[in-house]
């Protein structure tokens, strides 16, 4: 299936599968929209406007023509639904959605025939069942928006490199030659989040990435800046509805 060029395939909607080793893929774009799902591990998907972390039982929706990059710390099976613009009933913005067991199995089944199916046949009906299920998928809060201002980009880059960086907003603002008040105002304006919310989301997504690679909760919690494991678990459960152990079960 991986030998098919998804931009040249004849069918409007189809699913392709490929096995990958741990990777940091190249930036690229497709003319079709994509629903990207990995059956194991955690994906990190970056666009020029932000990043999404995609744990198991989740998928990321990428709009047509959106440049993006996919990375993972573990080997994984990737199954991607490709759809002509407007053919799949999903939001008009990139997002992570929950994927139930039925949709997972449907994607696996559809990937076995890929784009090689006849309109009106059983394969086409299976594709239609997938499309009928898509509006029921709930959006998950696993997005970190990227600021545009050069000063904010410098701060965001430093914190992304080291989520445990203990510096205050005022200290970080000083490193880029501006004031705490200016940075606070711009973060809210450009990302829709306060700086504190943005930093918590960064740490949460960094934790998901590492937990999905098999690291222990205690190591991850301390490495991303929490003083104790219980505080991290409380924040994790508040954001995602489960403890880390149950979330990855």
UniProtKB/TrEMBL annotation:
Is RNA-binding tagged as a keyword?
no
Q: Which UniProt keywords apply?
A: DNA-binding, Repressor, Transcription, Transcription regulation
Q: Which Pfam families match?
A: AraC_binding, HTH_18
**Domain HTH araC/xylS-type per the UniProt entry, residue ranges:** 153-249
Under the heading Gene3D superfamilies, the entry gives: Homeodomain-like, Jelly Rolls
The domain of life for this entry's organism is Bacteria
Q: Which GO terms of the molecular function aspect are on file?
A: DNA-binding transcription factor activity; sequence-specific DNA binding
What CDD domains does the annotation carry? Answer: cupin_NimR-like_N
As recorded in UniProt, coiled-coil segments are none
Q: What is this protein called?
A: Helix-turn-helix protein
Organism, scientific name = Archangium gephyra
């Amino acid at each position: 299936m991986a030998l098919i060029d998804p931009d040249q395939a004849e069918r409007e909607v189809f699913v392709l599968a490929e096995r990958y080793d741990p990777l940091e893929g190249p930036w690229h774009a497709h003319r079709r929209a994509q629903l990207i799902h990995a059956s194991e591990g955690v994906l990190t998907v970056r666009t020029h406007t932000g990043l999404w972390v995609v744990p198991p039982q989740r998928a990321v929706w990428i709009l047509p023509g959106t440049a993006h990059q996919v990375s993972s710390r573990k080997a994984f099976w990737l199954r991607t639904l490709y759809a002509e613009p407007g053919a799949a009933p999903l939001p008009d913005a990139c997002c992570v959605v929950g994927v139930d067991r039925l949709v997972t199995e449907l994607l696996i089944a559809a990937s076995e025939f890929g784009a090689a199916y006849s309109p009106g046949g059983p394969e086409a009906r299976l594709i239609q069942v997938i499309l009928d299920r898509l509006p029921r998928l709930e959006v998950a809060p696993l997005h970190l928006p990227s600021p545009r201002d050069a000063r904010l980009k410098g701060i965001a880059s430093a914190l992304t490199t080291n989520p445990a960086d203990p510096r205050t907003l005022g200290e970080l603002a000083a490193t880029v030659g501006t004031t705490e008040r200016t940075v606070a105002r711009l973060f809210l304006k450009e990302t829709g989040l306060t700086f504190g919310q943005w930093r918590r989301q960064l740490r949460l997504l960094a934790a998901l990435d590492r937990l999905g690679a098999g690291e222990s909760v205690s190591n991850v919690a301390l490495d991303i800046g929490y003083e104790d494991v219980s505080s991290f678990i409380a924040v994790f459960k508040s954001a995602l509805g489960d403890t880390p152990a149950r979330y990855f079960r």
